[in-house]
Amino acid sequence: MFIKLLNKVRQFPTEPGIYLFYNKNKELIYIGKATSLRNRVQSYFRGARSMRPIEQMMHEVVDIKIKETDSVLEAVILESNYIKKYLPKYNVEGKDDRSWNYVVISDDLFPRVYTVRQHELDQQNKQSKQNMQIKYLFGPYPELKTREMMRLLNRLFFISTCKPCESGKPCRPCMYYQIGQCLGVCTGEVSSHEYKSKVILPLVTFLRGGKKTLIKNLEIKMRRASKQEDFEEAGRLRNQISSLLKIHDIALLNKSFVEDSFKIHPDFIGTRFKISRIEGYDISNLGTTGKVGSMVVFDDLEAQKKDYRKFKIRSVEGQSDVDCLKEVLERRLKHTEWTYPDVFLIDGGKPQVNAAMQILHKNNIKIPLVGIAKGPERKRNDFIFGVKDREFIKFVNDNQDLLIKVRDEAHRFAITFQRSLRKLKH
Fold it and tell me: Which residues form the UvrC family homology region profile domain (predicted)?
């Protein structure tokens, strides 16, 4: 039986999903999730076993079934829904469920989305449901990094983390509004009803395991918005659908679960590219004057504003974005106390990329670099590689939306800096 099961497992795909262990009575006794179904299930058949109940009881397992998912996030959600539905004994018995995590959606005017642990939920359960203000509760999610999960859900569904704009008071846009990740709760541009319709209901559908239904609904809304010539909303929905179809998982699972997790895309687990930190650069000028450069930093998909840097161009005469970029990179590399990124990204085509690579080679910096060129009509996003490495090219192709967002933020930051200098002059 052991050899038969192992041969079956060797045929499993390396995709994310959940696996189901059955005993001789065809009873489902354990459900687990995996970033790679084959690798995860094979781990039960080799090496010393831990004291986890399921590993001690592997002799009971006579059959294993799997269900593939498109992403680790969806495997996490599917596992939770199956555990809740079937209550397999080795998921429940002997489990310290006090550390299980749940996603809560509040019953506020602009619902909050946050995570709680089982013991926190137990304490809240002593209160009335009205005082708890819980509209929806999803979970449990075992062995999950809740902070990373919330970052991913915030990005996929435009969840607001800012304070709603109050009538009669001045409203300030939050950072996420400025980079297109907040629909305008902070500025009063979106009503409670719109927020629930555009953000909360799609999130609820997704967490219930209805990704296919959600995408169909979003496609209908996108076509309707386009027909009504609301092209901004149609574009937002198009991008949301694209992100849902190719979810870029963060390292959602604890280290005890995945030994060497990659923080952006599951295809890179176990490769030498551990890409988390990205630096983006842009140059802005008014002809031959007002030349400035910007450096923005994203880490684990989040903008790290405290690490942003501004540069007034000192050495370049006339108008030359290429020379300005070379100066900015030279000055940046002198600051060895600033954490180096995993990727350099620049706003520009081949001339900028070639110039930037010269600076990196000169300083013996071996960090991959990519440029994004807008094309002659400034309507394209052509990726220009500073290094011809197959794994890095695959990373860029799988994470184009993220890299474009970094480029756009670098552009916004450079323009803002230049305008602030112009105001000081007048």
Answer: 252-360
Q: At what angle do helices 231-245 and 400-425 cross, to 10 degrees?
A: 140
Domain holding 329: CATH number? 3.30.420.340
- pLDDT grade, residue 72 (50/70/90)? confident
Any idea what the Cα angle at residue 113 is, between residues 110 and 116, rounded to 5°?
140
For residues 168 and 216, membership in a common domain is answered with yes
395/392 Cα distance (integer angstroms): 5
Residue 103 and residue 91 share a domain: no
In a domain, 335, yes or no: yes
- Contacts for 30 with CB less than 8 Å, ≥ 6 apart: 20, 21, 54, 61, 88, 89, 90, 91
Q: Which two tokens stand for residue 341?
A: 């990124």
Closest CA to 104 of 143, 136, 140: 136
CB atoms under 10 Å from CB of 36, counted, come to 20
């499993």: which residue's tokens? Answer: 12
Which amino acid, residue 372? I
Average confidence (pLDDT) over 376-388: 80
Angle (CA) 126-130-134 rounded to 5° is 85
**Rounded Cα–Cα distance for residues 203 and 211 (Å):** 9
Return d(Cα 101, Cα 73) in angstroms, integer. Answer: 14
**253 domain residue, yes or no:** no
Residue 289: count other Cβ atoms within 10 Å of its Cβ.
Answer: 9
Q: Report how many domains make up the chain.
A: 3
157-202 pLDDT tens trace: 999 989 898 877 888 888 888 878 899 999 999 999 999 999 999 9
Q: Which residues pair with 381 in a beta bridge?
A: none
Confidence of residue 29 (pLDDT cuts 50, 70, 90): very high
Domain housing 180: 98-245
Same domain, 289 and 194: no
For 266-284, what is each residue's pLDDT tens digit?
A: 333 334 455 678 999 999 9
341 pLDDT band, cuts 50/70/90, is confident
